[in-house]
Amino acid sequence: MNTRLSLLLPAMLVAAATAQAADQTLIAKGEYLSRAGDCIACHTVKGGEPFAGGLPIESPFGTIYSTNITPSKTAGIGNYTLEQFDDAVRHGERADGGNLYPAMPYPDYSVLSDDDVKAMYAYFMEGVKPVDKKAPETDLSFPFNQRWGIGMWDLVFGHDAAFEPHSQNPFVNRGAYLVQGLGHCGSCHSPRGVAFQEKGYDETDANFLSGGKIGIWEAPSLRGGSGAGPLVSWDKAEIVDYLANGRNDRTAVGGEMTSVIEHSLSYLTQADLEAIADYLKSLPGAGKEVLLSAEATEKTAAQLNSAKVPVDSGARVYLDNCGACHFTRGQGASRVFPQLDGNALVNAEDPSGLIHVILAGARLPSTKGAPEELAMPAFGWRLNDEDVAKLATFVRQAWNNHAAAVTAKQVAAVRETIPATELNATKPTLN
Amino acid sequence: MARQEKPVDVVLVGLGWTNSIMGMELAQEGLNVLALERGEDRDTVPDFAYPKMADELTYGVRYKLMAKPAKSTITVRHSLTETALPYRHLGSFLPGDGVGGAGTHWNGHTWRPMPEELRLRSYVEETFGKDIIPADMTIQDFGVSYDELEPHFDFFDKVMGVSGKAGNVNGEIHEGGNPFEGRRSSEYPLPPLKRTFNDELFTNVAKEHGLHPFPLPSSNASEAYTNPYGMQLGPCNFCGFCERYGCLNFSKASPQTCILGALKQHKNFSYRANSEVLKVELADDKKTAKGVTYIDKNGEEVFQPAKIVIVGTFAYNNVRLLLLSGIGQPYDPVTNTGTVGRNYAYQMMGGATLFFKDKFFNPFIGAGSNATTVDDYAINQIDFAKEGFIGGSYLLAAQTNGQPIRSMPLPAGTPSWGAGWKKATKDYYGHSMSISSHGSNMSYRDCYLSLDPNYTDDHGLPLLRLTFDWKDNDIRMTQFMKGKVEALAKGLNPDHLNISFKDFGAKYDVRPYQTTHNVGGAIMGTNPKTSVLNRYQQSWDVHNVFVLGSSSFPQNLQYNPTMLVGGLAYWTAKAIREQYLKQPGPLVQA
């Protein structure tokens, strides 16, 4: 008996281990997909437990609080079946039949495959630590508190369709699946319509990824095949570097995209990032491609190098504050200091993002591939609204840049939104 | 009763260059590593941010980034018969403070030692005979060879992104580099910094004298750079705020720019700032350490258990911690017994300032290691028997800054205030260049470190006492260099020439800045009777204590110490990873 047992045991152990391993593989896959979907960004408060929800998301209709999506049976989604989980993720329906606000990008997630939803379900049920703390309830004013209305919105403006590959190239299709689905890039980078719906959910619509806005930050066009837009002049390696590390030879990430890179894109495999780049490069854009002329670059550089700039000019403010890193040619340094010549943020129609960076500085995320949090200090303590307006105007019209002038009033409006601690983070203190 | 923290595999005392390296190496090994740093946490932004850093009064004169003598300092005396007094105002050397340590405020001069320097006593005895070594000179071999360290030098070069020109690649002499250096396995990772006018003048005159000028190896990046850890440097913009300042531009190699961001990615690494280690706690048999006791940021006493203790604080503070912890036998110069505190050495400096009415050097262009140098008077180039001294120096023409308070050289005899001073300042600001000599300092029986019998720090623990003075051998060496510098300076026909070299009878003066290259006191070697550490920087007495830094040097190099300090840290890390972890115990049998 005993001998038989001992013979059996290892076999049983092996069988058990395989079952466990399959689960672990599925959970790991789900974890990877949750990274691709950046679930953690909205469902976690700064410094809080992962996925415990409670992050306030400002929308045109009021503040929406993200929910607790840990497997807690009292405060989270621990009682959800796979089907209920699927209804929420792909169709925006809660287990109690209520509709989710489309702050949750279910119109994008609708293209997810059944297998991927299963893997994510496995991860959220078994790979996430349950947190028994309820997130605050969303409480919008009438009529936006009528969740049944979202059902109507879904019917008219929503998007609930399976993924359709349109390319002969499997890499482009993989990229399309990631960009349209989990990546939900369109939620920021596509323009919004009258009912705040995304204009276009895939490459069949020319509006798709043609540029949008999130808060004060312009999300530039991601259509990299042709026409106007920053990605047109980037090669595949530069796109991948940017997505993985928030920096490349030309630029560095700022604004809302910083967290997307830190918590989501930097976790993706090289192959997936390359697929995303392939897909973005396959999308034709509108308008004329902006070519940088060396002559325009050198013209501004010569003016700055001569040091013959009026004492109260934007050029002077640039020399005294910016030239140390971005240099007189506005080229910065590869992967360290972003190039201002032709930069998308610098040339954005709304200068608020640029103003924000000047006032509050910016910090790159630490990623596996580029662990250094390279940072620009804040200048809000040092430059008044008039100085910043002059500086931003100079930068927006220097080298190859051709953007509209900036007023002190525009600077003041951005300054109001930045906490004093941020404005003064690098202010010298008396000893 | 001290609070007790959760045990860790490794506790690092201090978080500057050495323990950033060690932290990285042991975190890669998967060990649970904790660093305790006495000073505050620091990062490029906000702490070194532009334009705050470009403030000479705050950082250059008032030493905002340095250790505070009011909290803890050392006492100094010239000889055994004197009573030492506290070093109350920093001058001669500037110990660092905070995360990154002195690695944040250095100039970036990045020299490898000469192979001969690592086996100095053997080299001198073999080449010139035993008899030329003075009776009280206590120079020794390090116990590790250049060839053993070369791969680590090579890697540390790449970690720091050193800008330079190799002179000896695998035995092949390359034009434009240092022909006298030890064999390098590869060219520097970055090309030399752009040259300034003083470089051009010095290069020409050095060549006229048959010397071999080359760009000083610099840890100020000449181009944007990514190191093996994925950490990045921006191109140096020659802002002129380097030594005494944190780099505002991500250009100077430091623990912050080269290691810490990548190290923080390791979940098994953590660090606590404002945590001052007072003592390494030993087991009852005194053969192993149990951990360390430290004062946390709230002033509470904490015991931190650990399987391995790595002491990597500033040079002489390592020695003090060993003495306060009872690790090893304190050195007594009278009976010549004991080892801890033995062989303290410093650096022998001298220099000339050349004034030219008709030449403008634009001092607004400066970088910590913007210099041209010659190594023709190095340790392996001098006939010690003929010249009557042991040692060597490199000569350099550097333009590091034009800061108005401290970088306003004027011809000798200029009034120090009033109309005469104003006129000279107007005439000569930007019209001078320097040629300096940076040389070795030997170790002697009565130059040593011990606990002070009279003075204590803010915790009531004895301060460390330094007993040190200049010796004739080293004065002879610097006088020899004076002749060489003078010849080069006169070759440039300056309108005025100021020369400053120590002469016989000179006493060590702690007031003027010299260098922060304090070495020895916890030296490595091959004999437990004459060294504190074995060749792996492991304590002979307590095998799970390792000590890193220039305290390991048995005498000082002719060069700046950072490269050797880092190379030795990697060497020790390799020994821990490949030997010690498999079989904890002494790596060298005494």
From TrEMBL, chain A:
Broad class of where this protein is predominantly found: membrane
State a single Pfam family of this protein. Cytochrom_C
Query: Which UniProt key words apply to this protein?
Result: Cell membrane, Electron transport, Heme, Iron, Membrane, Metal-binding, Repeat, Signal, Transport
Q: Which InterPro entries match?
A: Cyt_c-like_dom, Cyt_c-like_dom_sf, Cyt_C_IC, Cytochrome_c-type_DH, Membr-bd_ADH_cyt_c
According to its UniProt record, where is this protein located? Cell membrane
Indicate the secretion signal residues: 1-21
Against Gene3D superfamilies, the record matches this protein to:
Cytochrome c-like domain
Q: Indicate the segments forming the Cytochrome c domain, all copies.
A: 25-128, 170-284, 309-399
Instruction: Read off the PANTHER family from this record.
Output: ALCOHOL DEHYDROGENASE CYTOCHROME C SUBUNIT, BLL4482 PROTEIN-RELATED
Q: Which protein, by its recorded name, is this?
A: Cytochrome c
| Species per Swiss-Prot/TrEMBL record | Shewanella avicenniae
Automatic annotation (TrEMBL), chain B:
Q: Which domain of life is it from?
A: Bacteria
User: What keyword terms does UniProt attach to this protein?
Assistant: FAD, Flavoprotein, Oxidoreductase
Domain spans labelled Glucose-methanol-choline oxidoreductase C-terminal: 445-568
Q: Does the keyword Signal apply?
A: no
Give the range the annotation lists for the signal sequence: none
Q: Which Pfam families match?
A: GMC_oxred_C, GMC_oxred_N
Q: Does the keyword Flavoprotein apply?
A: yes
Q: Which PANTHER family match?
A: LONG-CHAIN-ALCOHOL OXIDASE
Q: Which family does it belong to?
A: Belongs to the GMC oxidoreductase family.
Q: What is this protein called?
A: GMC family oxidoreductase
